[in-house]
Amino acid sequence: MSGAAALQKERNYIAVIGDEDSVTGLLLAGIGHVNQQQKRNFLVVDAKTPLSSIEETFLEYIKRKDIAIILINQHIAEDIRELVDGHSAAFPAILEIPSKDHPYGKISREG
């Protein structure tokens, strides 16, 4: 097995950063995982979630070797756009998804 194939084989999980409805739906679909260090592969974001917590979680997920894909609600990705756009590695892949309250599409930047 080549080195690249071995690296891909270790990436077994999908991580999600999203609102409660998005995360709950994906957990019900079976993506939830807690590793040996008690690190979860999901973060529920609401109005009280500090931006620093979202940034730290995103950075943790892109460094983890067991995550293949990060799903993130588009409106949350806008809050950390510099980090999302700065990620250029093949793994984990980042996919922005819509949420119930924020349909997918171009988000206008106010200010």
From TrEMBL:
GO terms for molecular function: proton-transporting ATPase activity, rotational mechanism. It holds the Pfam family ATP-synt_F. This is V-type proton ATPase subunit F. Keywords: Hydrogen ion transport, Ion transport, Transport. Subunit of the V1 complex of vacuolar(H+)-ATPase (V-ATPase), a multisubunit enzyme composed of a peripheral complex (V1) that hydrolyzes ATP and a membrane integral complex (V0) that translocates protons. V-ATPase is responsible for acidifying and maintaining the pH of intracellular compartments. The keyword Mitochondrion does not apply. V-ATPase is a heteromultimeric enzyme composed of a peripheral catalytic V1 complex (components A to H) attached to an integral membrane V0 proton pore complex (components: a, c, c', c'', d, e, f and VOA1). It comes from Thamnidium elegans. PANTHER family: V-TYPE PROTON ATPASE SUBUNIT F, VACUOLAR ATP SYNTHASE SUBUNIT F. It comes from the Eukaryota. Belongs to the V-ATPase F subunit family. Gene3D superfamilies: ATPase, V1 complex, subunit F. The lineage of its organism: Eukaryota, Fungi, Fungi incertae sedis, Mucoromycota, Mucoromycotina. InterPro entries: ATPase_V1-cplx_f_g_su, ATPase_V1-cplx_fsu_euk, ATPase_V1_fsu_sf. The keyword Zinc does not apply. GO terms for cellular component: fungal-type vacuole membrane; proton-transporting V-type ATPase, V1 domain.
